[in-house]
Write a structure and sequence with these properties.
Layout (H helix, E strand, L loop, with lengths): L10 E5 L4 H12 L3 E6 L2 H13 L3 E6 L5 H15 L4 E4 L14 H29 L2 E6 L12 H25 L1 E8 L11 H10 L8 H13 L8 E4 L7
Parallel strand pairs: 1-2, 1-4, 2-3, 4-5, 5-6, 6-7
């Protein structure tokens, strides 16, 4: 089987699919033959990604959804199952990062990160598991972070959400792998050139300065790691992939 048809017949659901890692992952999965359901909050940009996939000969269905809204997540999954009958791959990519010292006590920002980065993942997992368990197969790919291995000053709460995702991924493997044939992968990127910091221009400018002479990861680099896990044989569960820029000093 060639790389171009390695996922023929599979249906993938990708959250946060309008930009960065999510967009690159959707394109990569589609290029391998998967039908890709794209979801994010920005409907216009979802249509752009879907058009890019279909223009390359793939199949895509854009559905706007906020992962923090459980009812909308359930409706998203129900629509996907009604249209395609299955969900083989779930890529939990939607996430936000708000940086600042704990001393500022930005509780609203902390709660929002937990709502998206942790609760949003739980909403999707809870919605897709019944169909995967009934079929005895499936693959959940969680996009974590190197921050899920070590916190950093200013990013303590963000790191805490990624630590939670790492624990969830491993626990899911233990509960769902041998018992139900469901594979789980935690992808842990280092610094990636994405829009993650665009909502905080001051922090973004500081990061850009600190990385001015260093090579960052590109979204396509992470998408390749996701594609590797997704196209591995069904008896192979790639549990974790840590992928860092060569130039990342920490």
């Amino acid at each position: 089987m060639s790389e171009q048809d390695a996922l023929d017949g599979r249906v993938a659901l990708v959250t946060g699919a309008t930009a960065g890692i999510g967009r690159a992952t959707a394109l990569a999965l589609a290029s391998a033959g998967a039908t890709v359901v794209l979801t994010a909050r920005r409907e216009g940009r979802l249509d752009e990604v879907a058009a890019a996939i279909e223009g390359a000969g793939g199949t895509a269905l854009p559905i706007a959804c906020d992962v923090t809204d459980l009812d909308r997540v359930r409706a998203l999954v129900a629509t996907t199952l009604e249209r395609f009958g299955r969900i083989d791959i779930l890529v939990n990519n939607a996430g936000i990062m708000s940086l600042g010292p704990l001393s500022e006590a930005r509780v609203d920002d902390w709660a929002r990160m937990v709502a998206v980065n942790v609760n949003g993942v739980l909403h999707l997992v809870g919605a897709v598991l019944p169909e995967m368990i009934e079929r005895g197969a499936g693959h959940v790919i969680n996009v974590g972070s190197v921050a899920g291995r070590r916190p950093f000053p200013g990013g303590t709460v963000y790191a805490a959400t990624k630590f939670a995702l790492r624990a969830l991924s491993w626990g899911m493997h233990l509960e769902l792998g041998a018992a139900h044939g469901i594979r789980v992968t935690d992808i842990q990127p280092g610094y990636v050139a994405t829009e993650l910091l665009d909502s905080d221009p001051e922090t973004k400018a500081a990061w850009d300065i600190s990385w001015a002479d260093r090579r960052t990861l590109q979204p396509e680099d992470v998408a390749r790691a996701i594609l590797f896990a997704a196209t591995s044989p069904d008896h192979v569960s790639v549990s974790e992939i840590l992928v860092r820029p060569t130039d990342q000093p920490t």
